[in-house]
Amino acid sequence: MLQQQQRPNMDWMLQDLATSVPCTRQVVVLSADGLRMAQYGTDADTADRLAAACAGLQSLSAAVAAEFPHGDGRMRLVVIEIDGGFFYLMAAGAGAYLAVLADDGVDAGLMGQRMRDLVLRIGEHLTSPPRVDRPAP
Hints:
The protein is an alpha+beta fold and about 140 residues long. Helices cover about 35% and strands about 30% of the residues. It has helices at about 10-20, 45-65, 110-120, and strands spanning about 1-5, 25-30, 35-40, 75-80, 85-95, 95-105, 130-135.
């Protein structure tokens, strides 16, 4: 039986980012395979959909990053400007990513800085260890 390791509730850790950067709408932490690990500012269903979409986006960005001959082939930050706002996706640890949706008026520099600060401050909590097969009890 495949079991996920129990993680502490990290949703509260995302509150500081969401409240310190005006125009922030949603913050989600996800694993590389698209599972929601934490959320703030949205319901679980919406966070799950966003996490699943982010998994595909991080995979595409890693493929593009691999084309740079002098880099390590890993995605660090993706920013997408859409009608009505911005989407940010940042590598946040081994197998984990931080995703943010923000309205048009967001300060992009402040958002990037606060996302980096959050990853540095609590990065060890934002990793997604590989899942392991464990025998059923």
